[in-house]
Structures are given as C-alpha cells and as structure tokens.
Amino acid sequence: MRGALGPYLNVAQGAIATFQGIGASLSGLAAGIIVDRFGYGAAFTAASAIATVALAALALAMPETAREGVGETLSTTDGTELRRARRRSS
C-alpha cells in the first residue's frame, strides 16, 4: 500500500505491534515482582498510576480532529446545545 501513507506503513505497523507485545509481556513480569515485594494493593496502584500518565500523555499529544464550523447546533428542551455533524454526500 503506497501513496499518501508512505512506503514504510507496514514497517511502522510491525514496530507498533512488536512494542505492544513487549509491553504486554513485561507488564505481567513487573506486576508479579510488585505483588511479591509489596502486595496486590501496590500492584493495582502502580497500574493505575501508569494508566493515568498514559491517558494524560494521550490527551496532550493527540491533535483535535474536529473541524470548527462543521455541522449544526441543536438546542434541547433543557437549554443545552448539541452539535451534529453533517453527512457527507458521495
């Protein structure tokens, strides 16, 4: 699959899958070590702290994908407004 996505898309997908696999295997090892030394509470606390840091990094690094001014604003009966995207006609 070449073109706008570049010739190395399959390499990038393979690298991402490799890092996900390494992370999945190391997370079990790390959790086991934490449980053995500090108990289950510490393992869940460490996992939630790592997940919170990952979520914050995602929220800060992910660009906004919604375009301003696209769609229409709908008013509800309680006074709040909802935005509905317009359907694209093909």
Care to give the gist of this entry?
By secondary structure, this protein is mainly α. It has helices at residues 9-38, 40-61, and strands at residues 72-75, 81-84.
Describe it.
The protein has 90 residues and is mainly α. The chain has a domain at 1-61. Helices cover 58% and strands 9% of the residues. It contains two helices and two strands. The chain has helices at 9-38, 40-61, and strands at 72-75, 81-84. The protein has a two-stranded antiparallel sheet with strand order 1-2. Strand 1 and strand 2 (81-84) form a beta hairpin. The relative contact order is 0.06. The mean pLDDT is 81.
SSE class: mainly alpha
What helical percentage do the residues reach?
A: 55-70%
Based on CA atoms alone, the radius of gyration comes out at: 22 Å
Uncertain runs with pLDDT below 50, 5 residues or more?
Answer: none
Mean pLDDT: 81
Number of distinct helices: 2
Shape: flat
User: What is the string of SSEs from the N terminus onward?
Assistant: HHEE
The tally of strands reads 2
Largest sheet: 2 strands, antiparallel
Cα(first) to Cα(last) distance is 24 Å
Order of strands, widest sheet: 1-2
Portion of residues in beta strands equals 5-15%
Walk me through the topology.
Blueprint: H1 9-38, H2 40-61, E1 72-75, E2 81-84
Antiparallel strand pairs: 1-2
Helix pairs in contact: 1-2
Can you tag this structure with a few keywords?
2 helices, mainly alpha, 90 residues, single chain, 58% helix, 9% strand
